[in-house]
Amino acid sequence: MEKKKIGREDFEAFLKGEKDITSYIELDPLAGSYSVFGVNTASNPNYLIKAIYEMYEANLGRKLAVQAVRKLFRSVGSGSVGLNNLLKKEGINLKPAEFLMLVFKLQHQQGWGAPFELVEQSDKRIVLRAKQTFESQVMKDWNIPVCGIHKGWIEGVLGAVTGKNWFCLETKCHAKGDDTCEFVADQVESSWKFKARAIVNGDSAITEFIEHKPLEGKIKLIDDPVVMMPRFIFTSMMNSLKKTMGELPAGGVNYRAHMDMGKESVGHYRKMGIDKANILSEMAFAFYSQMGWFSIIETEWNEVAKTKTMILSHTVESEAFGNTGKNVCFCTAGLLAGIIEESFGIRVQAKEIRCRSKGDENCVFLVTNKPEKSSLI
Ligand SMILES: [Zn+2]
Ligand SMILES: [Zn+2]
Protein backbone atom coordinates (compact mmCIF):
# COMPACT_ATOMS: atom_id res chain seq x y z
CA MET A 1 0.00 0.00 0.00
CA GLU A 2 1.36 3.36 -1.05
CA LYS A 3 1.81 5.76 1.83
CA LYS A 4 -0.01 9.05 1.51
CA LYS A 5 2.20 12.11 1.52
CA ILE A 6 1.24 14.49 4.29
CA GLY A 7 1.83 18.13 3.49
CA ARG A 8 1.23 21.57 4.88
CA GLU A 9 -2.28 21.82 3.45
CA ASP A 10 -3.22 18.66 5.31
CA PHE A 11 -2.07 20.16 8.61
CA GLU A 12 -3.89 23.39 7.83
CA ALA A 13 -7.09 21.55 6.97
CA PHE A 14 -6.72 19.65 10.21
CA LEU A 15 -6.15 22.81 12.24
CA LYS A 16 -9.14 24.52 10.65
CA GLY A 17 -11.29 21.52 11.40
CA GLU A 18 -12.06 20.87 7.74
CA LYS A 19 -10.70 17.36 8.11
CA ASP A 20 -10.25 15.07 11.06
CA ILE A 21 -7.72 12.41 11.87
CA THR A 22 -9.77 9.59 10.33
CA SER A 23 -8.72 10.79 6.88
CA TYR A 24 -5.11 10.12 7.85
CA ILE A 25 -5.31 6.68 9.34
CA GLU A 26 -3.82 4.03 7.11
CA LEU A 27 -4.31 0.46 8.11
CA ASP A 28 -2.76 -2.48 6.30
CA PRO A 29 -3.49 -5.66 8.29
CA LEU A 30 -1.38 -7.92 6.09
CA ALA A 31 1.70 -5.78 6.42
CA GLY A 32 0.91 -5.18 10.08
CA SER A 33 1.23 -1.46 9.58
CA TYR A 34 -0.87 1.24 11.13
CA SER A 35 -0.07 4.84 10.62
CA VAL A 36 -1.70 8.04 11.67
CA PHE A 37 -0.75 11.25 9.94
CA GLY A 38 1.97 9.43 8.06
CA VAL A 39 3.74 8.40 11.27
CA ASN A 40 3.99 4.76 12.23
CA THR A 41 2.48 5.33 15.61
CA ALA A 42 -0.81 5.28 17.51
CA SER A 43 -0.99 1.72 18.86
CA ASN A 44 2.81 1.46 18.75
CA PRO A 45 4.29 4.91 19.16
CA ASN A 46 7.98 4.44 18.60
CA TYR A 47 8.94 7.40 20.71
CA LEU A 48 7.12 5.90 23.69
CA ILE A 49 8.91 2.57 23.30
CA LYS A 50 12.23 4.39 23.14
CA ALA A 51 11.34 6.48 26.19
CA ILE A 52 10.47 3.39 28.23
CA TYR A 53 13.76 1.69 27.36
CA GLU A 54 15.76 4.83 28.02
CA MET A 55 14.03 5.50 31.34
CA TYR A 56 15.18 2.11 32.61
CA GLU A 57 18.59 2.44 30.95
CA ALA A 58 19.37 5.55 32.99
CA ASN A 59 19.51 3.52 36.23
CA LEU A 60 20.08 -0.03 35.12
CA GLY A 61 22.24 0.03 32.01
CA ARG A 62 21.06 -1.57 28.75
CA LYS A 63 21.05 -5.26 29.56
CA LEU A 64 19.00 -4.89 32.75
CA ALA A 65 16.78 -2.24 31.15
CA VAL A 66 15.62 -4.89 28.67
CA GLN A 67 14.71 -7.11 31.64
CA ALA A 68 12.78 -4.32 33.31
CA VAL A 69 10.79 -3.73 30.11
CA ARG A 70 10.13 -7.46 30.07
CA LYS A 71 8.66 -7.29 33.55
CA LEU A 72 6.44 -4.39 32.54
CA PHE A 73 5.07 -6.24 29.54
CA ARG A 74 4.48 -9.42 31.47
CA SER A 75 1.50 -7.58 32.93
CA VAL A 76 0.30 -6.72 29.42
CA GLY A 77 0.49 -10.40 28.48
CA SER A 78 -1.37 -11.43 31.64
CA GLY A 79 -4.32 -9.38 30.41
CA SER A 80 -4.94 -11.93 27.65
CA VAL A 81 -6.67 -14.20 30.16
CA GLY A 82 -9.90 -12.38 29.27
CA LEU A 83 -9.64 -13.35 25.61
CA ASN A 84 -8.86 -16.92 26.57
CA ASN A 85 -11.96 -17.11 28.76
CA LEU A 86 -14.09 -15.66 25.99
CA LEU A 87 -12.82 -18.28 23.53
CA LYS A 88 -13.50 -21.05 26.00
CA LYS A 89 -17.05 -19.80 26.49
CA GLU A 90 -17.49 -20.03 22.73
CA GLY A 91 -16.26 -23.60 22.87
CA ILE A 92 -12.88 -22.89 21.32
CA ASN A 93 -10.12 -24.62 23.27
CA LEU A 94 -6.66 -23.73 22.03
CA LYS A 95 -3.37 -25.17 23.21
CA PRO A 96 -1.13 -22.59 24.95
CA ALA A 97 1.09 -22.26 21.87
CA GLU A 98 -1.91 -21.86 19.57
CA PHE A 99 -3.40 -19.21 21.81
CA LEU A 100 -0.06 -17.42 21.91
CA MET A 101 0.01 -17.39 18.10
CA LEU A 102 -3.52 -16.00 17.98
CA VAL A 103 -2.69 -13.20 20.40
CA PHE A 104 0.30 -12.14 18.34
CA LYS A 105 -1.62 -12.35 15.07
CA LEU A 106 -4.28 -10.03 16.49
CA GLN A 107 -1.64 -7.68 17.79
CA HIS A 108 0.40 -7.77 14.62
CA GLN A 109 -2.52 -6.66 12.49
CA GLN A 110 -2.88 -3.64 14.73
CA GLY A 111 0.77 -2.76 14.32
CA TRP A 112 2.02 -4.28 17.55
CA GLY A 113 3.21 -7.86 17.97
CA ALA A 114 5.58 -9.65 15.66
CA PRO A 115 4.26 -12.00 12.92
CA PHE A 116 5.45 -15.16 14.65
CA GLU A 117 6.27 -18.56 13.29
CA LEU A 118 5.82 -21.45 15.73
CA VAL A 119 9.05 -23.43 15.69
CA GLU A 120 8.54 -25.89 18.54
CA GLN A 121 5.87 -26.68 21.11
CA SER A 122 5.54 -29.00 24.08
CA ASP A 123 4.06 -28.70 27.58
CA LYS A 124 7.30 -27.27 28.90
CA ARG A 125 8.85 -25.44 25.95
CA ILE A 126 7.61 -23.16 23.20
CA VAL A 127 9.89 -21.65 20.57
CA LEU A 128 8.78 -18.73 18.41
CA ARG A 129 10.54 -16.87 15.66
CA ALA A 130 9.96 -13.62 13.80
CA LYS A 131 12.05 -11.83 11.23
CA GLN A 132 12.09 -8.87 13.56
CA THR A 133 9.94 -7.14 16.16
CA PHE A 134 9.04 -3.49 16.38
CA GLU A 135 11.28 -2.98 19.41
CA SER A 136 14.18 -4.58 17.55
CA GLN A 137 13.72 -1.88 14.90
CA VAL A 138 13.24 1.01 17.32
CA MET A 139 16.13 -0.01 19.58
CA LYS A 140 18.42 -1.32 16.84
CA ASP A 141 21.26 1.03 17.81
CA TRP A 142 21.65 -0.74 21.18
CA ASN A 143 23.12 -3.67 19.28
CA ILE A 144 22.16 -6.29 21.91
CA PRO A 145 19.10 -8.56 22.22
CA VAL A 146 16.48 -5.88 22.99
CA CYS A 147 13.12 -7.62 22.69
CA GLY A 148 12.04 -7.34 26.33
CA ILE A 149 8.53 -6.36 25.26
CA HIS A 150 8.00 -9.64 23.43
CA LYS A 151 9.77 -11.69 26.11
CA GLY A 152 7.52 -10.29 28.82
CA TRP A 153 4.46 -10.51 26.63
CA ILE A 154 5.09 -14.20 25.88
CA GLU A 155 5.70 -14.95 29.58
CA GLY A 156 2.55 -13.09 30.57
CA VAL A 157 0.31 -14.81 28.01
CA LEU A 158 1.64 -18.28 28.83
CA GLY A 159 1.43 -17.62 32.56
CA ALA A 160 -2.17 -16.47 32.20
CA VAL A 161 -3.39 -19.47 30.23
CA THR A 162 -1.41 -22.22 31.97
CA GLY A 163 -1.32 -20.89 35.54
CA LYS A 164 2.39 -21.81 35.59
CA ASN A 165 5.53 -19.72 35.59
CA TRP A 166 7.33 -19.22 32.27
CA PHE A 167 10.77 -17.84 31.55
CA CYS A 168 11.54 -16.55 28.07
CA LEU A 169 15.00 -16.10 26.60
CA GLU A 170 15.75 -14.32 23.36
CA THR A 171 18.37 -16.51 21.71
CA LYS A 172 18.71 -14.44 18.52
CA CYS A 173 17.85 -10.82 17.91
CA HIS A 174 17.53 -8.69 14.79
CA ALA A 175 18.84 -5.72 16.81
CA LYS A 176 22.06 -7.63 17.47
CA GLY A 177 22.47 -8.33 13.77
CA ASP A 178 20.95 -11.84 13.70
CA ASP A 179 18.68 -12.91 10.84
CA THR A 180 15.69 -13.40 13.18
CA CYS A 181 14.41 -12.71 16.67
CA GLU A 182 14.00 -16.10 18.33
CA PHE A 183 12.23 -16.66 21.63
CA VAL A 184 12.55 -19.78 23.74
CA ALA A 185 9.98 -19.97 26.53
CA ASP A 186 10.43 -22.61 29.23
CA GLN A 187 8.09 -23.49 32.02
CA VAL A 188 10.10 -23.02 35.21
CA GLU A 189 9.68 -23.06 38.94
CA SER A 190 9.02 -19.67 40.42
CA SER A 191 11.47 -20.14 43.24
CA TRP A 192 13.43 -17.78 45.43
CA LYS A 193 16.58 -19.59 44.34
CA PHE A 194 15.87 -19.05 40.65
CA LYS A 195 15.38 -15.29 41.12
CA ALA A 196 18.32 -14.83 43.47
CA ARG A 197 20.62 -16.62 41.01
CA ALA A 198 19.42 -14.28 38.25
CA ILE A 199 20.50 -11.33 40.42
CA VAL A 200 23.94 -12.82 41.10
CA ASN A 201 24.43 -13.63 37.40
CA GLY A 202 23.55 -10.08 36.43
CA ASP A 203 20.46 -11.18 34.47
CA SER A 204 18.13 -9.32 36.82
CA ALA A 205 18.44 -6.46 39.25
CA ILE A 206 16.77 -6.56 42.65
CA THR A 207 14.38 -3.85 41.43
CA GLU A 208 12.69 -6.53 39.31
CA PHE A 209 11.68 -8.37 42.49
CA ILE A 210 10.74 -5.50 44.77
CA GLU A 211 7.09 -5.59 45.59
CA HIS A 212 6.26 -2.28 47.19
CA LYS A 213 2.85 -1.66 48.71
CA PRO A 214 3.36 1.79 50.21
CA LEU A 215 -0.28 2.20 51.21
CA GLU A 216 -0.15 -0.99 53.25
CA GLY A 217 3.28 -0.16 54.68
CA LYS A 218 4.84 -3.27 53.18
CA ILE A 219 7.90 -3.96 51.02
CA LYS A 220 9.09 -7.35 49.88
CA LEU A 221 12.30 -8.24 48.12
CA ILE A 222 11.68 -11.52 46.29
CA ASP A 223 9.55 -13.13 49.01
CA ASP A 224 11.24 -11.61 52.05
CA PRO A 225 9.86 -8.59 53.88
CA VAL A 226 12.37 -5.71 53.96
CA VAL A 227 12.36 -2.19 55.31
CA MET A 228 13.64 1.04 53.84
CA MET A 229 15.90 2.96 56.16
CA PRO A 230 17.33 6.46 55.83
CA ARG A 231 21.13 6.50 55.65
CA PHE A 232 21.49 9.03 58.46
CA ILE A 233 20.31 6.31 60.84
CA PHE A 234 23.97 5.22 60.86
CA THR A 235 25.24 8.51 62.21
CA SER A 236 22.42 8.63 64.69
CA MET A 237 22.99 5.04 65.87
CA MET A 238 26.74 5.55 66.17
CA ASN A 239 26.42 8.83 68.02
CA SER A 240 23.97 7.39 70.48
CA LEU A 241 26.22 4.40 71.20
CA LYS A 242 29.27 6.68 71.49
CA LYS A 243 27.47 8.77 74.09
CA THR A 244 26.66 5.77 76.25
CA MET A 245 29.82 3.70 75.94
CA GLY A 246 32.60 5.67 74.22
CA GLU A 247 33.84 5.66 70.66
CA LEU A 248 35.93 2.49 70.49
CA PRO A 249 33.45 0.17 72.24
CA ALA A 250 30.68 1.63 70.06
CA GLY A 251 32.65 0.66 66.95
CA GLY A 252 33.07 -2.84 68.37
CA VAL A 253 29.37 -3.22 69.08
CA ASN A 254 28.45 -2.11 65.57
CA TYR A 255 31.03 -4.46 64.08
CA ARG A 256 29.64 -7.38 66.05
CA ALA A 257 25.98 -6.60 65.33
CA HIS A 258 26.58 -6.29 61.60
CA MET A 259 28.71 -9.39 61.54
CA ASP A 260 25.75 -11.31 62.94
CA MET A 261 23.54 -9.68 60.33
CA GLY A 262 25.86 -10.82 57.52
CA LYS A 263 25.82 -14.33 58.93
CA GLU A 264 22.04 -14.35 59.20
CA SER A 265 21.73 -13.29 55.57
CA VAL A 266 23.97 -16.06 54.32
CA GLY A 267 22.21 -18.55 56.61
CA HIS A 268 18.93 -17.51 55.03
CA TYR A 269 20.25 -18.03 51.49
CA ARG A 270 21.43 -21.47 52.54
CA LYS A 271 17.97 -22.29 53.85
CA MET A 272 16.57 -21.25 50.49
CA GLY A 273 18.68 -23.90 48.80
CA ILE A 274 21.95 -22.20 47.87
CA ASP A 275 24.85 -24.39 48.93
CA LYS A 276 28.08 -23.30 47.20
CA ALA A 277 30.33 -21.10 49.35
CA ASN A 278 31.38 -18.66 46.63
CA ILE A 279 27.79 -18.26 45.39
CA LEU A 280 26.58 -17.61 48.94
CA SER A 281 29.11 -14.83 49.41
CA GLU A 282 28.57 -13.39 45.92
CA MET A 283 24.84 -13.39 46.55
CA ALA A 284 25.24 -11.49 49.81
CA PHE A 285 27.59 -8.97 48.19
CA ALA A 286 25.21 -8.52 45.23
CA PHE A 287 22.14 -8.06 47.46
CA TYR A 288 23.74 -5.64 49.93
CA SER A 289 25.38 -3.70 47.13
CA GLN A 290 22.12 -3.39 45.21
CA MET A 291 20.36 -2.38 48.43
CA GLY A 292 22.65 0.64 48.66
CA TRP A 293 25.20 -0.47 51.26
CA PHE A 294 28.32 -0.24 49.14
CA SER A 295 29.71 -0.81 45.68
CA ILE A 296 32.55 -3.24 45.20
CA ILE A 297 35.30 -1.99 42.91
CA GLU A 298 37.68 -4.85 43.32
CA THR A 299 38.56 -7.81 45.51
CA GLU A 300 42.04 -9.30 45.63
CA TRP A 301 43.08 -12.61 47.11
CA ASN A 302 46.63 -12.94 48.33
CA GLU A 303 47.40 -16.65 48.25
CA VAL A 304 50.68 -16.36 50.17
CA ALA A 305 49.41 -14.22 53.01
CA LYS A 306 45.90 -15.80 52.83
CA THR A 307 44.32 -12.38 52.96
CA LYS A 308 41.53 -10.82 50.99
CA THR A 309 41.50 -7.14 50.17
CA MET A 310 38.16 -5.56 49.33
CA ILE A 311 38.00 -2.11 47.78
CA LEU A 312 34.61 -0.41 48.05
CA SER A 313 33.83 2.81 46.23
CA HIS A 314 31.44 3.97 48.91
CA THR A 315 29.94 2.56 52.04
CA VAL A 316 26.76 3.52 53.82
CA GLU A 317 28.66 4.97 56.79
CA SER A 318 31.29 6.93 54.88
CA GLU A 319 28.48 8.50 52.85
CA ALA A 320 26.44 9.20 55.98
CA PHE A 321 29.30 10.66 58.04
CA GLY A 322 31.13 12.56 55.32
CA ASN A 323 34.66 13.71 56.08
CA THR A 324 35.56 13.09 59.73
CA GLY A 325 39.30 12.45 59.47
CA LYS A 326 38.80 8.92 60.83
CA ASN A 327 37.84 5.41 59.71
CA VAL A 328 34.13 5.06 60.30
CA CYS A 329 33.03 1.86 58.56
CA PHE A 330 32.67 -0.54 61.49
CA CYS A 331 29.26 -1.75 60.34
CA THR A 332 30.48 -2.56 56.83
CA ALA A 333 33.62 -4.25 58.16
CA GLY A 334 31.48 -6.45 60.40
CA LEU A 335 29.05 -7.19 57.59
CA LEU A 336 31.84 -8.30 55.21
CA ALA A 337 33.40 -10.49 57.91
CA GLY A 338 30.04 -12.09 58.75
CA ILE A 339 29.27 -12.84 55.09
CA ILE A 340 32.66 -14.48 54.54
CA GLU A 341 32.58 -16.44 57.82
CA GLU A 342 29.17 -17.95 57.24
CA SER A 343 29.69 -18.62 53.51
CA PHE A 344 33.02 -20.40 53.86
CA GLY A 345 32.65 -21.78 57.39
CA ILE A 346 35.83 -20.08 58.60
CA ARG A 347 36.63 -17.45 61.20
CA VAL A 348 37.88 -14.11 59.92
CA GLN A 349 38.32 -10.52 60.92
CA ALA A 350 37.83 -7.54 58.65
CA LYS A 351 39.78 -4.37 59.31
CA GLU A 352 39.24 -1.13 57.50
CA ILE A 353 42.68 0.11 56.42
CA ARG A 354 41.60 3.08 54.29
CA CYS A 355 38.42 5.13 54.54
CA ARG A 356 36.74 7.83 52.48
CA SER A 357 35.75 9.57 55.70
CA LYS A 358 39.46 9.82 56.54
CA GLY A 359 40.10 11.41 53.14
CA ASP A 360 41.13 8.27 51.23
CA GLU A 361 39.78 7.67 47.75
CA ASN A 362 38.01 4.43 48.69
CA CYS A 363 37.22 2.37 51.73
CA VAL A 364 39.56 -0.62 51.78
CA PHE A 365 39.08 -3.67 54.00
CA LEU A 366 41.62 -6.33 54.80
CA VAL A 367 40.07 -9.68 55.63
CA THR A 368 42.34 -12.12 57.45
CA ASN A 369 41.94 -15.48 59.13
CA LYS A 370 41.23 -15.21 62.78
CA PRO A 371 43.60 -17.28 64.88
CA GLU A 372 41.79 -19.73 67.15
CA LYS A 373 41.49 -18.30 70.60
CA SER A 374 44.30 -19.58 72.79
CA SER A 375 42.89 -21.11 75.91
CA LEU A 376 43.13 -18.84 78.90
CA ILE A 377 45.49 -20.30 81.39
ZN1 LIG B 1 14.83 -9.21 19.03
ZN1 LIG C 1 35.13 3.73 55.28
CATH class of the largest domain: Alpha Beta
Question: In percent terms, what proportion of residues is strand?
Answer: 15-25%
**Tally of DSSP helical segments:** 12
Mean pLDDT: 89
Order of strands side by side in the largest beta sheet? 4-5-7-6
Q: Could you tell me the number of beta strands? A: 14
Number of separate structural domains: 3
Examine the secondary-structure arrangement and name the CATH architecture of the largest domain: 2-Layer Sandwich
Q: What ligands are attached or bound here?
A: zinc ion
CATH topology of the largest domain: Muramoyl-pentapeptide Carboxypeptidase, domain 2
* Cα gyration radius (Å): 27 Å
Distance between the termini: 95 Å
Which ranges are low-confidence, i.e. pLDDT below 50, for 5 or more consecutive residues?
Answer: none
Describe the sheet with the most strands. 4 strands, antiparallel
> What's the helix-strand series?
HEEEHHHEEHHEEHEEEHHHEEHHEE
